[in-house]
Design goal:
The structure holds 2 protein chains of 2 kinds. By secondary structure, chain A is mainly α. Chain A contains 4 helices and no strands. Chain A folds into 2 domains: 55 residues; 39 residues. In chain B, 80% of the residues lie in helices and 0% in strands. The chains are: A mainly alpha, B mainly alpha. Chains A and B meet through α2, α3 and α4 of A and α3, α5 and α8 of B.
Chain lengths: 115, 215
């Protein structure tokens, strides 16, 4: 673990280069987090709400895994602006998607109610 | 009078140093590679917003089938799992290509970059075959709002993969010309960000479109 960290070279732009160990761990975790939701949905053994929750959790977990192990994001000061801009975009994306779905659902609802 | 002469001496510039152009050129090549990679990171984040709008459109329109075949009748999860495996493997092999470039190992870099290209091509082939199959089954891009949103989202991702593969071909040429130069390292770093980003978008696609579409 410490060996893999010492072999990391961090370039000034905030992109560090990683190691074989990091990529392998990222790959294994990604495979695991892909197989779980597919297996759950294909077997159809658990209920709808539970399946959706599991899919969401696995998706978020796998995105984090890939950001950390493939894109080498971290909280070091060299990467401060990479992380700050990414957090801003995550906020923007959430407003965009949740806002759109929320507005359009209300619109559909009001149309059906005959207002 | 003395104060005016002081002001004049400040306004009139002395002899210019050799190579002076009026621009602060020193700033520009300081930390060139890092700035480029950060700029590319900003581009990727703006691309995230593009995909977010397409996901929002799909979320809003996903049940507007207008009497055409439903997604849940058409999606084949084992096929999607195959596509996912190809893209995930290509992300890993790209990582190996970057590691080879860090060790200045040209043969390794070319091998892994070529493997990544082949895996990307396999993914794109499967995607196009899927589109053709869906279109023949009655779910064309012009059939209904839901299917238009589907093709817009998946098609945009596919176009990005195609752009990444085109970029790889250009990079092969540049590597052949210049070897593993500093400029080529920066290009490889940017392409690496782009390729991993496409894999992250695909996680959202298979989770929100395919898996949730089947439930």
């Amino acid at each position: 673990m410490s060996q893999s960290h010492s072999s990391n070279q961090i370039s000034p732009g905030g992109a560090s280069h990683g190691s074989l160990y990091e990529y392998s761990v990222g790959l294994c975790l990604s495979i695991l987090l892909t197989v779980i939701p597919f297996a759950v949905v294909m077997s159809g053994s658990i209920g709808e709400t539970l399946s959706i929750t599991l899919i969401l959790l696995c998706a978020v977990a796998q995105i984090m895994v890939q950001l950390i192990f493939f894109l080498h994001m971290n909280t070091s000061s060299e990467q401060m602006w990479n992380s700050v801009s990414a957090v801003f975009v995550v906020l923007l994306v959430l407003i965009l998607i949740i806002g759109s779905v929320w507005i359009m659902q209300h619109l559909n609802h009001n149309m059906l109610m005959g207002h | 009078m003395p104060s005016a002469s002081v002001a004049n001496s400040k306004l009139v510039p002395g002899p210019l140093p050799p190579g002076y152009t009026g621009y602060v050129s020193e700033e520009q090549h300081h930390d060139y590679g890092g700035d480029t990679v950060f700029g590319f990171w900003i581009y990727i984040l703006s691309d995230c917003v593009l995909f977010a709008t397409l996901f929002a459109v799909y979320a809003v329109l996903q049940s507007n089938y207008a009497g055409t075949i439903n997604a849940s009748e058409l999606f084949e999860l084992d096929y999607v799992l195959g596509e996912t495996a190809l893209l995930l493997a290509s992300s890993f092999t790209f990582g190996l290509a970057v590691l080879a470039a860090n060790r200045d190992h040209m043969a390794g870099l070319l091998t892994w970059l070529l493997t990544t290209f082949a895996l990307g091509a396999g993914f794109l082939y499967m995607e196009i075959m899927e589109f053709i199959h869906f279109t023949h089954a009655g779910a064309a891009a012009w059939s209904s709002g839901a299917w238009s949103a589907f093709y817009a989202l998946i098609g945009t991702h596919g176009l990005h993969v195609f752009a990444g593969m085109f970029w790889m071909m250009v990079l092969f040429g540049l590597l052949y010309k210049e070897g593993i130069s500093e400029a080529n390292r920066v290009r490889l770093m940017c392409l690496s960000l782009f390729w991993h980003f496409l894999d992250i978008i695909w996680i959202c696609v298979f989770s929100f479109v395919y898996l949730m579409g089947v439930i």
